[in-house]
What does this fold into?
Amino acid sequence: MGKLIDITGQRFGRLTVLGRAGIYRAPDQETICLTWRCRCDCGNETVVIGNNLKHGYTKSCGCLRKEIASERMRAYHDKRQRTADGI
Ligand SMILES: [Zn+2]
It folds into this structure.
């Protein structure tokens, strides 16, 4: 096991780490990960697995993904609208 790295106070994307939340045990019962309590820029608090923060998989409470999705959806509708107008 590697030594415990304290990432309290660090930022990952929109998330600021508030402190350790606990331990996540994977379904195989062998993989154990630390989880961290984080505050997102949008004001939500969320608990994230440490490795996901370090590898950049998790950068928000989920709001970032929703925004990207809605942005794509808007672009899609804009394009459809232009097509419908014959431009
Ligand atoms: Zn958020």
In short: The pocket of zinc ion is lined by residues 14, 40, 42, 44, 60-61, 63 (CB under 6 Å). The radius of gyration is 18 Å. The CA atoms of residues 39 and 45 lie 4 Å apart. The first strand starts at residue 11 and ends at 12.
